[in-house]
Q: What sequence folds into this?
């Protein structure tokens, strides 16, 4: 938990950066990282996207996952042996019944934050302070979700449970913080036009549920706004899917040509049918704070990308091209379709969501392009949705 200090050659707005200490080849996993804290999105959980309460591993079998997304309980997936879900290992908290994928996850949650956050028999009590906080958040932050108040709650609970509270406070303080004006913009982005009133209501509910004297600054209006800024600018989205895992496993099968063609056709049709029924909401989704990943700056031509191939919160950073020793490792904060838009459109998204203007080689090369978004570009957005969705469904 010791990211590098301000790096020479980086602008103050970038603050930190991640650089290769050796040559890295294209396709190589640069690192695998566990989050300091993570949480599933609240609407995602409410709509029965079942995930481990600690590591976000999908808990449904691939077949159950497909049946729910398709709205068809009679669906049978071929090659069920390629599903990696082990229901015999699942465990619940004996007090509040939240589910974990393993005894290890249940114990890890208990030791880090769950003693503070366990609702016990009040799990379904709408008057419990934590349930009131979650309900208020859901009423302010509708899908598509980008964050969760429970990520902040787990930060507080982690400090409250810790023997060395100062160590954890220092660990969280390493994540990028913003000025008051920028914090306000982030809060506005998360909560909409009436954010000031909403933010104050959340702060009062947050205080009622979780107040701790040693963290008193986090419960002040300024400190609570800074928590929003922290998770808004550093939170990394996490997506898990047992169906996606099954698809990847099927792709790796050595099958006769005819069987391969039949299986590929079945999967293609399955995803088309799911798209009609469930749209873009395919994965168990949440967010987490990652120390190393948060040091990666953005580029519109990234040389690395994040993924979650283990079907849990373990983040893999993989090189998209050869990276030489001393070269900065950059990821993209934009999706594939957004990166193909004009410099003006890309920077509009980056300023609204991350409060900076990009100066990567691609943006510098397009500096003289007109600062307008063409009608053709707006139309192209709709045309790319299908391709983007297909990538989303299979690239967890």
A:
């Amino acid at each position: 938990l010791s990211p590098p200090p301000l790096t020479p050659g980086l602008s103050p707005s970038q603050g930190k950066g991640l650089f290769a200490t050796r040559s890295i080849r294209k396709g190589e996993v640069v690192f695998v990282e566990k989050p300091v804290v993570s949480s599933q999105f609240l609407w995602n959980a409410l709509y029965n996207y079942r995930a481990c309460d600690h590591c976000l591993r999908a808990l449904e079998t691939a077949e159950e996952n497909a049946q729910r997304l398709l709205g068809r309980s009679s669906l049978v997936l071929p090659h069920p042996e390629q599903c990696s879900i082990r229901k015999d290992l699942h465990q619940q908290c004996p007090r509040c019944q939240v589910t974990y994928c393993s005894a290890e996850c249940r114990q890890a949650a208990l030791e880090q934050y769950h003693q503070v956050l366990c609702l016990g028999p009040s799990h379904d009590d709408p008057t419990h302070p934590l349930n009131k906080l979650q309900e208020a958040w859901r009423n302010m932050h509708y899908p598509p979700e980008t964050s969760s108040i429970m990520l902040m709650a787990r930060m507080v609970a982690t400090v409250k449970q810790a023997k060395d509270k100062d160590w954890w406070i220092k660990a969280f303080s390493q994540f990028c913080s913003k000025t008051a004006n920028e914090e306000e913009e982030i809060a506005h982005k998360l909560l909409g036009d009436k954010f000031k009133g909403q933010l104050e209501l959340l702060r009062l509910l947050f205080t009622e549920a979780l107040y701790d004297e040693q963290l008193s600054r986090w419960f002040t209006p300024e400190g609570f706004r800074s928590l929003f800024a922290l998770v808004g600018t550093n939170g990394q989205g996490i997506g898990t899917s047992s169906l996606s895992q099954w698809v990847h496993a099927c792709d790796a099968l050595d099958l006769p040509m005819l069987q391969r063609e039949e299986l590929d056709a079945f999967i293609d049709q399955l995803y088309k049918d799911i798209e009609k029924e469930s749209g873009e909401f395919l994965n168990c989704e949440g967010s987490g704070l990652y120390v190393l990943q948060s040091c990666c700056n953005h580029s519109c031509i990234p040389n690395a990308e994040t993924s979650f191939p283990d079907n849990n919160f373990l983040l893999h950073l993989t090189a998209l091209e050869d990276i030489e020793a001393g070269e900065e490792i950059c990821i993209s904060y934009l999706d594939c379709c957004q990166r193909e838009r004009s410099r003006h459109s890309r920077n509009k998204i980056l300023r609204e969501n991350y409060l900076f203007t990009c100066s990567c080689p691609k943006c510098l090369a397009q500096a003289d392009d007109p600062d307008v978004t063409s009608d053709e570009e707006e139309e192209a957005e709709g045309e790319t949705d299908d391709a983007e969705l297909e990538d989303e469904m299979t690239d967890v």
